[in-house]
Design brief:
It is built from 17 helices and 22 strands. By secondary structure, it is α/β, with parallel strands linked by helices. The strands form six sheets. It has a seven-stranded mixed β-sheet, sandwiched between helices. A six-stranded mixed β-sheet has the order 9-8-7-10-11-21, sandwiched between helices. Helix 3 packs parallel to helix 9 and helix 5 packs across helix 6. The chain is globular and about 75 Å long. The model has no long low-confidence stretch (mean pLDDT 97). The chain binds NADPH dihydro-nicotinamide-adenine-dinucleotide phosphate. NADPH dihydro-nicotinamide-adenine-dinucleotide phosphate (NDP) binds next to helix 9 and helix 10.
């Protein structure tokens, strides 16, 4: 069956209504200068849709719409209960339109349809509901006890919150980022990655249907250098959220520094998994293989450094190589695909370049990786999973590759393992694997990162903050209950006691 034959009729209609517009002030509109760009299916390199390309003038229009909606639509001032009801209606629509959203996400990113359908998209609905519910339960006015004064602190939404987001989890990250901002009463402008704007734009049809006031949600697809930069540098945004690479994160932070705008940075990672010699080898191998191949390894926090106890080195290697070789690589929309393509030819070349560079620096390929051929899709951007072993200063052990490549190192003692983990300049998330929970707890605390996972990898329960430190970001993270407060500015009200 061809890719087009698989598409649902609503998806076809959405894509055929091309070029897809920017979403500003509750309507799909063309870009100010009429420019467009094309988004590709990474599974076969063919065009999927033409999308209007936003630039500075469009960002200006979107920020103005969001500002007007903040001031006049009633969104910021309505009782939390009413906003929450609208966000829950939006969550219901995300669930109702899950098949369409999942197809668009799979098509645009290349990820297996099952992952989008069972993971990313349902999570968006959960996140919207979770923050909608939380916002009705938190105190936005706290009395403060001080002698001689009657004082309290109230919390108010900031105003226009801007978001620049990457291509690996487009819809999931829209949910994680905008749900707390909206639940707190802010209005938002989103710049999705130019590679993957489709699910976010389709989501806007649900924003319309749910009845959120016009201008509360605005989306300006376009290139980072133009639309992204214009949004980050816009003098009237009040809060900035960025998810992406540390390189671009620095530009965003500088722009926010110049305008004195608070900024949240969710950046890259070089996650480690420390595996002790008392694990169930087969079960642990299954989980690390799943983590490495999730989203073709294009996951900020995935386990890309495997730090294995020397006693299990050989057994673990033979377990994982067999499992990785058996991974079904294919087009995202084909049921049964376990690992889709890389997002783009550029990303595939980057992955292959790292493999060459790592080997040139002395790494030993345990599983060579390289381009993968998928029957029927000769022009897709497919790669095979790869395992390298070597020294901790190898480029593949140090830099974020963003592909299904793990770098393996061995350890003898707990201290050695922790030292290897903490050599990284990143600090996003690591995991430790052992049935000895005392030891697991010690190692979890000693690993320097925003998250330490025990006997699992990629664990994201709502209510537990997910944030990075060092090169992986700053500013408070996502998913936590405190995240809601990041989108509420504190204001002290004080008067002398009469
Ligand atoms: P980039 O940093 O290249 O891009 C992220 C976003 O920034 C895109 O929308 C991009 O636009 C935009 N952008 C690019 N240049 C500029 C600029 N000068 N000013 C403003 N915006 C700009 O990252 P990738 O898209 O390649 O995403 C992968 C990265 O994201 C990895 O490092 C990964 O680890 C990280 N990430 C971190 C997560 C976390 O939670 N910590 C979660 C997911 C990913 P465009 O694409 O259109 O150029």
């Amino acid at each position: 069956m061809s890719t087009t034959d698989r598409l649902l009729s609503k998806v076809k209609t959405f894509l055929n209504d091309s070029p897809v517009g920017l979403f500003i002030d509750g309507r799909f509109v063309p870009s100010a200068d009429g420019a467009t760009f094309t988004t590709l299916d990474p599974g076969d390199g063919s065009p999927v849709a033409t999308v209007h390309e936003g630039k500075a003038a469009d960002v200006e229009a979107a920020v103005t719409a969001a500002e007007q909606a903040f001031a006049h639509s009633g969104w910021a001032t309505m009782p939390a209960k009413e906003r929450s009801a609208l966000l829950c209606k939006l969550a219901d629509l995300v669930e109702k339109r899950l098949p369409e959203l999942a197809q668009l996400e799979s098509l645009d990113v290349g990820k297996p349809i099952a992952q989008a359908r069972d993971g990313d998209i349902p999570n968006v609905a959960q996140t919207l509901r979770w923050y909608a519910d939380l916002a009705t339960h938190v105190h936005t006015c706290s009395p403060l006890k001080v002698d001689g004064f009657d004082a309290c602190q109230v919390r108010k939404p900031w105003g226009v919150c801007a978001f620049v987001l990457p291509w690996n989890f487009p819809m999931l990250l829209v949910g994680w980022n905008i749900a707390p901002a909206l639940a707190a009463g802010n209005t938002v402008v989103i710049k999705p990655a130019e590679d993957t704007p489709l699910s976010t734009l389709y989501f806007c049809t649900l924003v319309q249907e749910a009845g959120l006031p016009a201008g509360v949600v605005n989306v300006v697809p376009g290139y980072g250098e133009s639309a992204g930069r214009a949004l980050a540098e816009h003098p009237r945004i009040k809060h900035m959220g960025f998810t992406g690479s540390p390189e671009v994160g620095r530009h965003i932070a500088s722009a926010c520094g110049a305008n004195l705008v608070p900024v949240k940075l969710e950046l890259g990672g070089k996650g480690a998994a420390v595996v002790f010699d008392d694990v169930d080898i087969d079960a642990t191998a299954d989980k690390l293989v799943a983590a490495l191949t999730l989203n073709t390894g294009q996951v900020c926090c995935t386990a890309t450094r495997w730090i294995l106890h020397e006693k299990i080195w050989d057994d673990f290697l033979s377990a994982v190589t067999g499992k990785l070789q058996a991974i079904r690589i294919g087009h995202g929309l084909e049921e049964g695909t376990q690992m889709g393509p890389a997002i783009s030819d550029k990303q595939r070349r980057r992955i292959l370049g790292y493999l060459e560079g790592g080997v040139a620096q002395g790494a030993r390929p345990i599983l060579e990786g390289g381009p993968a051929e998928v029957a029927g899709h000769p022009d897709g951007f497919y790669v095979k999973p790869a395992l390298l072993a070597g020294e901790p200063d190898n480029i593949c052990a140090v830099e974020e590759i963003f592909g299904p490549v793990a770098f393996l190192m061995r350890f003898k003692t707990e201290d050695e393992a922790v030292a290897l983990v903490n050599r990284s300049a990143y600090g996003l998330a690591n995991s430790v694997w052992t049935p000895d929970l005392k030891r697991a707890g010690r190692v979890a605390e000693a690993m320097v990162a925003g998250s330490s996972w025990i006997n699992g990898h990629n664990l994201f329960p709502h209510g537990v903050p997910y944030a990075g430190c060092n090169l992986s970001g700053c500013g408070g993270g996502v998913l936590g209950s405190d995240t809601l407060f990041d989108y509420l500015r504190p204001q002290s009200i004080i008067r002398p006691t009469q």
